[in-house]
């Protein structure tokens, strides 16, 4: 087996999602058996889930006029504000032992090394084994991702959410996206909720996005990706029982990525 880590640093939302689609194609074609990608977002960006409708989740015109990005993920889940975080992608064939089995089992498998990496930094994180444990109230279609916990997502012992994730399977390839919050910017998405959103709903969501979220900065003042990323690589290497080798991303640029960039830009 070949497992690689690709760190692409910061790019805009369209580039980030196009690159993940490229990785899915390369893994599907047999180039690698397992990819852990880490990255960031410039400018800050809202991503929405594969099946979400833009007009129900965000005021796209105001968002882009203010200089922020908007992109659709190939994974499910709900809207996320991407800014002060370490974002990761896990890409592997569905049959790979690190992600194989029913979705519930695959989520447990990917959550375990993620949790161990965060704990190795000194953060008292826990994995959520049930969808009934919420970061604040019931799940509604317009709720941003970080207002509730998903199965096996990582948080704190007092019920606050620290990592948000979403998955997809396509043509035999598994993809998981996740956001590990360094700081909490999630409340910013409320400034761009669709026009006509009831004030009472905004107030409720504001409470969830302020008090229902944890971030690494609380436990590790001054934390940055430079400490989180190596911990992730080491933890996944232990989990896979093989070295996770560094791979250079620039060599993967080319005509196919350019085409995927156009497709992602049009996919809203």
Descriptive account of the structure:
There is one protein chain. With 268 residues, the chain is of the alpha/beta class. The chain has a single domain (3-266), classed as Bira Bifunctional Protein, Domain 2 (BirA Bifunctional Protein, domain 2), CATH 3.30.930. 33% of the residues lie in helices and 23% in strands. It has eight helices and eleven strands. Strands 9-10-6-2-1-11 form a six-stranded mixed β-sheet, sandwiched between helices. A three-stranded mixed β-sheet has the order 4-3-5. The chain is globular, with a radius of gyration of 17 Å. The model is unreliable at 132-139 (pLDDT under 50).
Task: Provide keyphrases for this structure.
268 residues, alpha/beta, BirA Bifunctional Protein, domain 2, six-stranded mixed sheet, three-stranded mixed sheet, 8 helices, 11 strands, 33% helix
Helix count, DSSP H or I runs of 4 or more residues: 8
CATH classification class: Alpha Beta
Q: Domain count, please report it.
A: 1
Q: In sequence order, what are the helices and strands, one letter per element?
A: EHEEHHEEEHEEEEHHHEH
Q: What Rg do the Cα atoms give?
A: 17 Å
Globally, the shape reads globular
The CATH homologous superfamily: Bira Bifunctional Protein, Domain 2
CATH topology: BirA Bifunctional Protein, domain 2
Strand content: 15-25%
Mean pLDDT: 93
Tell me the number of strands.
11
Largest sheet: 6 strands, mixed
Helicity range: 25-40%
Give me the secondary-structure category. Answer: alpha/beta
């Amino acid at each position: 087996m070949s497992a690689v880590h690709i760190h692409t640093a910061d790019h805009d939302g369209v580039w980030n999602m196009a690159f993940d689609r490229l990785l899915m194609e390369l893994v599907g074609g047999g180039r690698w058996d397992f990819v852990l990608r880490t990255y960031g977002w410039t400018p800050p960006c809202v991503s929405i889930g594969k099946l979400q409708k833009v007009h129900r989740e965000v005021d796209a015109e105001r968002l882009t006029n203010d200089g922020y990005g908007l992109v659709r993920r190939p994974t499910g889940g709900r809207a996320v504000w991407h800014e002060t975080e370490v974002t990761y992608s896990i890409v592997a064939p569905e049959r790979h032992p690190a992600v194989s089995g029913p979705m519930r089992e695959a989520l447990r498998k990917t959550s375990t090394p993620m949790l161990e990496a965060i704990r190795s930094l000194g953060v008292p994180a826990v994995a959520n084994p049930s969808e009934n444990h919420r970061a604040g109230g019931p799940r509604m279609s317009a709720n941003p991702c970080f207002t509730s916990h998903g199965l096996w997502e990582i948080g704190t012992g007092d019920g606050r959410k620290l990592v948000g994730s979403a998955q997809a399977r396509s043509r035999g390839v598994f993809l998981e996206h996740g956001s590990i919050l360094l700081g909490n910017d999630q409340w910013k998405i409320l400034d761009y909720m669709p026009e006509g959103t009831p004030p009472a709903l905004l107030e409720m969501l504001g409470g969830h996005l302020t008090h229902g979220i944890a971030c690494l900065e609380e436990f590790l003042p001054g934390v940055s990706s430079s400490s989180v990323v190596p911990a992730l690589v080491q933890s996944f290497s232990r989990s896979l029982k093989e070295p996770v080798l560094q791979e250079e991303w620039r060599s993967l640029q080319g005509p196919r990525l350019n085409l995927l960039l156009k497709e992602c830009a049009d996919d809203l």
